[in-house]
Structure formats: structure tokens, C-alpha cells
Amino acid sequence: MHPLIVRHVVLPLHERLKRTPTFAWLARLERTQWMEPEKLGELQFAELRRHLEFAYRHTRYYRRLLNEHELPPHRIQSLADFRKVPVLTRKLLRENFTDLAATGVRLGRVQRVATGGSTGEPVTLLVDMSAGFNIALRHRAHRWFGLEPGAREIVLWGSPIEATRQDRLRDLRDWLINSRLISAFDLGESALAAYARIITKHRPLRLYGYASAIYLLAQFLEREGWRPTWRMHAVFTTAETLFDFQRKTIEAVFGCPVAIEYGARDGGNMANECPHGGLHIPAEGVVLETDAITSDGLGEIVVTNCHRPAMPLIRYRTGDIGELADERCPCGRSLPLLKRVEGRRTDFLVAPNGRILHALALIYALREMERVREFQIVQDELDSVVVFVVAMPAWSRDDDEHVRRAVQARLGTEVRVKVETVETIPRTTSGKFRYVVSRVADGFIHDVLGSRRPAMAGARS
């Protein structure tokens, strides 16, 4: 569909039907990014105070917490005062779920969503999907690269391989907004060749998805000598750390800049990279801090997103490691900068039939199991997987079987799956948690990409 029709007719109608003020937010964000730093800081603190007052009035948890620490919102007059508010951890979120949910206020489309990726410790939270702030931030960041809402795009994301009626409805919606979804849950050679044909036919101006999955796709395309014959504007990676070697390959293959979107289900959109390389924090509604800073400047990222009313998470520990920057970006925007983010790397798994799966194919399944506190998936051989589970009370053999079936549904029934419940799951020597450890994937992917078989018929334009 013509991008102008999508931008000026389809998307506004889509947002109106969802009752989401995305474009009103976008117009506001286009102005505020150029405010003087002092004025932007005042706006940020005003939003923070508003959010604190909302949480104090409408959640039992924050009313109790702030009263216990003698920090009612009217006493918080500065960011220094704000930092006296105790941090919120995943453990506290799980233990206080009901008390953290907002009550006595009319909200929009509230959904119960589960996190589960990089920390290996899934949590569930409530999100008001009608807020519009996060989508508007993405639109703004894409505009930095000359991309308007409605531009043709390919999204490489977690998507079930088997289509359901809901998937078909989503496909229709995506067609109407010039978007095409390809699955990160199937990254085998035949799937990658099919994706190349889809990209060639769709001629997207942007590509958006998991960093590791886009990198794997780029490696495959590079091996086959594929290049776009049209101008792509940008590739946006998210959900994982993007390494320099990955960026270099992706940029070379697609012939355009690569930009990071740093976000999470529990924290929302926390930073976006501009064409000058600055990772900008959306200060209009997000406060980022780093806690327990080490000698090299790194600390745990703590977030407060002021536009998550269904379940306010104030000073929430993300589990990610990063560093804030003091300087201003050469692009001229006054939005503060995140200097770097480390951690959150997703691995791959390999099925006996040669299909390469993004690890989230299994993570999504395990994180929905309510009695799973932590988990780690270890693949020692193509047909052998061990799932370590730190279980909640009442774990049973039925839960073992549920895990076993979930793994075999994705990797194949011939895969031997052993489920072990453990007290703790050890971290790496650097203190990071690996939720997937595959001792098969690296060598297998190297073999796939190192060969040159005619898998790309019809993919070139």
C-alpha cells in the first residue's frame, strides 16, 4: 500500500480504533527533543512527580513504601530526593504483584505480559497498551533516519511457526500498514533463503528485530552475495546487545546504518540510537540511573518509566549493566545519553533436522509456566537438552512433563529432554546469567555459513 495512505489514513484509523494517542505523542516528542537541557530536565522531573503521585494514590505498594520511608510525593523535590526511594527488584515485583497494580483509576487496554529473556528469571506485569508513548518513541527514532510511519518494513521477531487465526488477522493488519513479519524461531538455511526472497519482493526501507537473528540473516546473505538493489534507510536491532562485529556485517550487507533500540517489556523503551551514534534516553517520560557503579563506570541500570500506569515500576532494577554519559550528542538533541549497555545476549539452539531456532522460542514457553522461578537450557548434543529449573512450591512431575513437551514441540520429539530442579543456577565468572548454553549452535552455524550451497534461488532481485 502507498506509504502516504498508510501514514495519513490507515495508521491514524488503526490508532483511533485502539484508542491510542500515538500521533499526539509523536507531535509532542518532535518538539521536546530540541528543548534546552534545563527545560527538558524540568519537564522530566514534572513527569516523575506526576507518576509518583499517581503511584502513591493508586497502588497499595507505593503508598505503604513511601509512608514507611517518610517520602510522600510532596517531599520529593529533586532527583536526589527521588534516589532515596528504595529500588524495586524482580523478587519484590513477584511478591507484591497485586499491591503494585493500579486501582481506583480508569485505564485503557491493560494486558498481562511476561518478561523472561536475559535474566532467566521471568516476571509478569500489567501494561496499559493504549498509552501510546512507547510506540511514539519508536516512530520518532525512525524519523531520525528519514523513515515515516507507514514506510515498508520487515520485522524479524518471535513468531510461532504454525499459523493460527489470530496470526492470520495480524498478517492482514501488517499488510495494511506495510509491515511483514518473519520468524526468528526458524533460522535454518531453507528459512533464511525464504526470508531473502521475501525481503527482495517486499523491498523494505527498514528492518527491525533481534540483534542476533538479524546478524545471522546478514551472514547468510553475505555468503550468498546478496545485496539490496534499492536504498534501505536503516536496520534497527533490539532485545539483545549488538556487538561491533555484528554491526559491521549488517551495515555491509544492507548498505545502511544500524541503530540500537534499548528496551524491555518491564522497562519499556529506554533509549534509541541516532545517526550520530548517540543512544538517547527519552527524558520526556523515562528516568535512567546506574546503581553499584564499578571502577570502569559500569553499573546496573535502574529505570522509571512514567508512562506505565497499569503497574508503576519505580526505580526498577533491569538486570542490565550499562553506563550513563555526561556529554551532549553532536546531533544537537538535548536528550541525555546512555554511553553503553552490556549483557543480554541471546544464543541459538539447533534441532536434529538442522533447523536453527532463536533461543526465545523456548524462553517464551518456559516463562509462561507460573511455577518456574528461574531456568537455564543447556544443549550438549543435537538430540540432548537439559533444563535446569529453580521451581516454585508445588512443583510436580506434571510440571516436568510440561517442560519436556514444550522443548520437544520446538526441537523435535526425538530430542531427549532431562528436567532437573535445582536450588540455584550459577552465574558466569563475570556475574552474568546465561539462560541458554548451546554447545552445538556455534559449530553448526559456522558449518552452515561456511558452505556455499544453492539455497538462494529466486532471492536476488
Architecture overview:
α2 crosses α8. The model is unreliable at 452-458 (pLDDT under 50). With 461 residues, this protein is an alpha/beta fold. 36% of the residues lie in helices and 23% in strands. The two termini are 20 Å apart. Among the domains are: 37-131 and 267-346, ANL, N-terminal domain (Rossmann fold), CATH 3.40.50; 360-434, GMP Synthetase, Chain A, domain 3 (2-Layer Sandwich). 43% of the residues are buried.
List the quaternary state of the chains. Answer: single chain
Based on CA atoms alone, the radius of gyration comes out at 22 Å
Structural category: alpha/beta
Mean pLDDT equals 87
| Coarse morphology | globular
State the distance separating the first and last CA atoms: 20 Å
At CATH level 2, the architecture of the domain at 37-131 and 267-346 is 3-Layer(aba) Sandwich
What is the CATH level 1 assignment of the domain at 37-131 and 267-346?
A: Alpha Beta
What is the name of the CATH superfamily of the domain at 37-131 and 267-346? ANL, N-terminal domain
Low-confidence stretches: 452-458
| Quantity of strands, as a count | 19
Helix content class:
25-40%
DSSP summary: helix tally: 15
